[in-house]
Amino acid sequence: MTADEVREIVLDRLARWAPLLSNAHATPVVLVGVGHDHARGEIQVVTVDDEQMRAEVIAGFLLSAVDKLRRVDPAAQPDPQWTRGTLTAILEHLRTAHTGVGPGGCTTCEQFVRGLGAR
Fold first, then answer.
1. Cα(14)–Cα(40) distance, rounded to whole angstroms?
2. Cβ atoms < 10 Å from Cβ of 20
3. From the CB of residue 54, how many other CB atoms can be counted at a distance below 10 Å?
4. What is the mean pLDDT of the chain?
5. Which end of the chain has less Cβ packing within 10 Å, N or C?
6. Which pTM value belongs to this model?
7. How do residues 41-85 score in pLDDT, each as one tens digit?
8. What is the dihedral of CA 50, 101, 118, 82, to 10 degrees?
9. Does residue 118 lie in a domain region?
10. Which has the higher per-residue pLDDT, 24 or 78?
11. Domain tally, the chain
12. Segments forming the whole domain that contains residue 52
């Protein structure tokens, strides 16, 4: 797939999704993409630059979105290996989203994503 083909798909999807969000009086806070070709399967996470929109809040939105997808269509449930891989990628993004956090990552975010609550 060429860079132009990827760009065309991105622009087409954003153009189709924008009216849906606008009609629902909703604004985007996170965009999840999956790589193709040499980047096959790599998860890309783009978030808003709002300092008040902390990683914990965005992780909560993502978990809520997964729950909604599963209620709407059971076929939307990914196989367990894909789910684990996706959560691992999201956790890695959350770890790097915090400046000055050591190699262990942000335990508050990790506990939140794993449903353990924050300490």
1. 21
2. 9
3. 18
4. 74
5. C
6. 0.55
7. 888 888 887 777 777 788 888 877 877 777 755 555 555 555 555
8. 80
9. no
10. 24
11. 1
12. 3-113
